[in-house]
What we know:
- Chain A has one domain (2-145): Roll (Pnp Oxidase, Chain A), CATH 2.30.110.10.
- Chain A contains 4 helices and 8 strands, in the order βαββββαββααβ.
- In chain A, 25% of the residues lie in helices and 36% in strands.
- The model of chain A has no long low-confidence stretch (mean pLDDT 89).
- By secondary structure, the first copy, chain A, is an alpha+beta fold.
- The longest helix of chain A has 13 residues, at 106-118.
- In chain A, helix 3 packs across helix 4.
- Chain A is globular and about 40 Å long.
- In chain A, strands 1, 2, 3, 4, 5, 6, 7 and 8 form an 8-stranded antiparallel sheet that branches.
Amino acid sequence: MLRRPQQIPEAIRGKIAKARVARLATIDISGQPHIVPICFAYDGRVFYSAIDRKPKRVAAEKLARVRHIRRDSQVALLIDEYREDWKRLWYVLVRGRAKLFSKRTRERSRAICLLKAKYAQYAGGMLSADAPIIKITPERITVWGEAQ
Amino acid sequence: MLRRPQQIPEAIRGKIAKARVARLATIDISGQPHIVPICFAYDGRVFYSAIDRKPKRVAAEKLARVRHIRRDSQVALLIDEYREDWKRLWYVLVRGRAKLFSKRTRERSRAICLLKAKYAQYAGGMLSADAPIIKITPERITVWGEAQ
């Protein structure tokens, strides 16, 4: 079911908030799709994800997702949970715009607080004080399966 | 690490083959990214996924992933596993071309056999005899984390 963000029922907001991982799709410089798993926090309206201290092969600014978002802000975010009982499968597909915060703003501080509150790993040092933050503002949300 | 498909070590091929779910990113008709979770089989070279009997809101031919692939065959497939011990995280990102099989060919029959062998749900009736099959041929494979 295609819904506007404000129509997401409480039960689904709960599933999204509880999920520990999401998959972020971006468009690469040649117009092809790219996906990475991300940790994220959801405040009931927008999503935040950090370029954290998990090992990276390149500096934050050169990371694929960062380069892609700078060029094309349209992204898709998938939250789902696999179960062997297929009657219990569900997913939430969020399509929207991504924005990068690298300067210290009040919103960025709030995002870092939300991420640290959700992930003990971040509170334990996996998130640097100057980590770039990706904000995703949903434009369309599709809910499928048990989550409906 | 970026690898050519034939350079994927055995250990990683094992992780891919064991994974029960992958996430498939396509480009929609307006050039924006789209993702769905999919069941898949991997024969060590290519990936197969079926348009199966899990509930759909539209007929197979109108499914988003089918329409997208018909228009733009470039896809990305992500196989990963979330763990709270972030030192043990891994993912495999496959970028390549998708092709749809809807006619009864020998390759399509083989793909259906592989899917039924992997998923008891398919052997149990969740896969119709005329299910369209998506074949994904890797062009680039990126391996990150514990899977390296």
